Amino acid sequence: MQFFFEVTLSGLLSGLMYSLVALGFVLIYKASGVFNFAQGAMVYFAALAVVGLMDKGMPMWAAVIGAFLVMILVGLATERFVLRKLVNQPPITLFMATIGLTFFLEGLGPLLFGNEVRPIDLGIVDEPIMSVMDSIGIGISKFDLFASGMVVALVAALALFFQKTKVGRALRAVADDHQAALSLGIPLQHIWAVVWGVAGFVALVAGLLWGSRNGVQFALTMTALKALPVLILGGFTSIPGAIVGGLIIGASEKLAEIYIPPVMQDAFGGNFGGIEGWFPYVFALLFLLVRPEGLFGERHIDRV
């Protein structure tokens, strides 16, 4: 039972890391209706910017600030030169545009900052907290706990931003109804620019955490694929849904990795390793059959 709790807790903490990537998707989709396929590339680009600026002699804190400014520019440029030209176009056109943006960022990042695999040292060692290990007998990773704290703090800050600021209220108005927001004098293009800038900041935080764990490499772009089951479970328009979906996917993935292969091998023989790579997608597919809009998504009823 102790091992079960340890695996579950590890999965929950890892799930919050998935939620961080999903959060970037939610912010953009909620405000503009665009499914930003480039979010994984933005995570990779942000991490590359940090290590690239550090290679040029900048200290860590200055490189992070510089990368933040770079991601703001990326967000503003995306709104100005991509989205603004495609206003009122079909959703599939916008989606294809973000696929093009993905390839552009994946090529531009290594061109500007190099493509060597490099680490990001946040000063947090990925090892168990011994005081907790000794007291309750469950190993909790220092890095996972730190990363989870960062995610919770970021979500709390975004919640306050959406609820308490004038810009945040305008963002929610745009998310509810673009045409109504325009009729009230809310500048839609400015709001989209803010959303893409915030999504760039979220990508930077995700790039720092994932780059610190796995190293800054092209594989970071695949983090976007890990976020898809999270979005399906939580809903594409819900920030709390991104968190809850991440927790469910993280815990179920770890538990499936430990407990399903022995059962499958006893029943059918063969090798069932690597189940954690595809189990979240199967789980999300089964969930779609029950609740297509997600746990916190809005249910749409079309009358004909």
Description:
The chain contains twelve helices and no strands. The protein has helices at 2-32, 39-55, 60-83, 91-113, 130-136, 142-164, 166-176, 178-183, 188-214, 223-234, 239-268, 279-290. It is mainly alpha-helical.
How many whole angstroms does the radius of gyration measure?
Answer: 20 Å
Find the structural class using helix and strand composition. Answer: mainly alpha
Outline, from the CA principal axes? Answer: globular
Strand content: under 5%
Average pLDDT metric = 81
Total beta strands: 0
Specify the helix fraction band.
Answer: over 70%
Biggest sheet architecture: none
Low-confidence residue ranges: none
* C-alpha end-to-end distance: 53 Å
Number of helices: 12
SSE order, one letter for each helix or strand: HHHHHHHHHHHH
